[in-house]
Amino acid sequence: MKEDIRGLLPYELEKRLTDMGEPAFRGxxxxxxxxxxxxxxxxxxxxxxxxxxxxxxxFVISGLTLKKHQKSKYDVTEKFLFELNDGNQIEAVLMGxxxxxxxxxxxxxxxxxxxxxxxxxxxxxxxxxxxxxxxxQVTEVSRISGRKINNVVIMGTxxxxxxxxxxxxxLRLIHxxxxxxxxxxxxxxxxCGLVDxxxxxxxxxxxxxxxxxxxxxxxxxxxxxxxxxxxxxITELIGECRDYVKKTGRRISFEYTLVxxxxxxxxxxxILAVLLRGxxxxxxxxxxxxxxxxxxxxxxxxxxxxxxKILNSxxxxxxxxxxxxxxxxxxxxxxxxxxxxE
Length: 342
Known about the structure:
Elements: E1 3-4, H1 10-19, H2 25-33, H3 49-58, E2 59-60, E3 65-71, E4 78-83, E5 89-97, E6 100-104, E7 108-110, E8 125-128, H4 131-145, E9 151-154, H5 164-174, E10 187-191, H6 195-204, E11 209-213, H7 219-225, H8 234-248, E12 252-258, H9 266-275, E13 281-287, H10 300-313, E14 318-320, H11 334-341
Parallel strand pairs: 1-2, 6-9, 9-10, 10-11, 11-12, 12-13, 13-14
Antiparallel strand pairs: 3-4, 4-5, 5-6, 7-8
C-alpha cells in the first residue's frame, strides 16, 4: 500500500526522498506543496517529472475519499463523510464563526469509550487513525470547501487521547512552519477524561486548548453514562484539571451535555458549581443532539439557558453552545451511523 505523504514530518519526507536518490532539499520543496490546494503530484509545478513519477509510485496525497458532502441551508456549516483505504468511514464538520472557520475532525474510526449519549461509539472502535488521516481531514476539507481553516477542534468520532501518539504527531505536523504553521492555541482537543494522557498533554503541548467531556456532576451519574468514570472518577479528573491549569496557565473547558430529567436539574447545577469552584474554567452547556438508538431525550435550549443562569449566578462562567448544521445531522457520529444502518 502506498504511503500517505501528508502524514510525514519534514525530516521523514527528506529521508524517504534521499533514500530514493534525491537531494535533501527536495524534501522541503515537496512538503511545502502538500499544504496548498493540490489534488495530484502533477500540480506541483516546480518538481521535476522524474521525481513526480517516483512520488506517484510510492505515495498518495490523501488516504481519504469523499463519500458525501452536505451543506446546511440555515448556516455555513458543511459536513463531510470520508472513506479510508480500508473501507472505514469518518466525519469532519466545517463551521463558520465571526473569528474564522473551524473544522471539527475525527481521531479514530469509531470509539471504544461507550458513552451512552454519543452516536460516535454505537458501532464500537474499528481502529486508530494515522497522523496522515487526521491531517488529511484538515487539508481535504479546506480544498473541497475552498475555505481557509483558522482553527481545529478534535471533537469528532473517537477519543483523541486514546490515540495519543498519532495525535501528538499530528500536532507537530500542523504546527510546522513550512506547512500550515497553525498555532497550538488554535487547536482544541476534547477528551472524556483519560487522566494519565492528560498529564502527558500538559507536559508536551501546554499551549493546546483542552475540553473535558464531563456531562454529570457526581460519580454515580457520570458512571451511568460514561464508563471511563469507573477508571478515572470525578475527584481524580478534576484534581488533574486543577494541576493542568497550574502547569499551563491556560483555562480549561468542560463540555456538559444536558439530558432531560437526568443531569439537568437545579441540584445538578449547584453540585457542579461547587465541584468547579475556584478553577479557571468555562462550562459549555449542550442540549443533547438526540439519537434514536440511545433512548435519551434532550433538555432543550430553554432549559439549557436556565442551567446557564444558575451556574453564572454561582460564579461559574457558562454558555450554551450554538446549534449548527441541525438539518445535516451536524452532531459528530450521526452521519456515519446513518450510513452504516441504511
